[in-house]
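for the recovery benchmark. tokens below, seq after
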């Protein structure tokens, strides 16, 4: 079996990765640490997905930033699987920038048993200091 056929079969079986592929084709997804962080800070990101095998520093960065800006974060998949789903190299973080698509991805993530990451810093936008 050719390698690209095998990866296509995996994508068909995994709804989350299929939706991420759809999001990148519709220009509703950014990938990579810098672009994901920029999308969160600018308010465009509706959902952040961080690879489970990302470094602890990367996980903490996106947990804290997303907590501060009120964006849900999920740990899902590997760097290789996230990058492969969007047709790029390894990616440790992705941000979905469309509300409807983000909602569909969250539904698929929760149906596969992924849980939203809680925590981060205790400093939110609504804090009056």
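predicted aa per position
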């Amino acid at each position: 079996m050719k390698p690209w056929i095998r990866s296509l079969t995996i994508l068909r079986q995994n709804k989350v990765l299929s939706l991420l592929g759809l999001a990148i084709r519709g220009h509703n997804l950014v990938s990579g640490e810098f672009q994901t962080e920029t999308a969160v800070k600018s308010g465009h990101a509706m959902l952040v997905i961080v690879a489970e095998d990302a470094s602890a520093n990367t996980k903490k960065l996106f947990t804290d930033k997303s907590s501060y800006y009120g964006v849900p974060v999920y740990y899902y998949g590997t760097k290789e699987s996230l990058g492969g789903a969007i047709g790029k190299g390894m990616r440790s973080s992705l941000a979905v920038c469309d509300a409807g698509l983000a909602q569909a991805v969250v539904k698929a993530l929760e149906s596969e048993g992924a849980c939203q990451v809680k925590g981060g810093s205790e400093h939110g936008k609504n804090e009056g200091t």
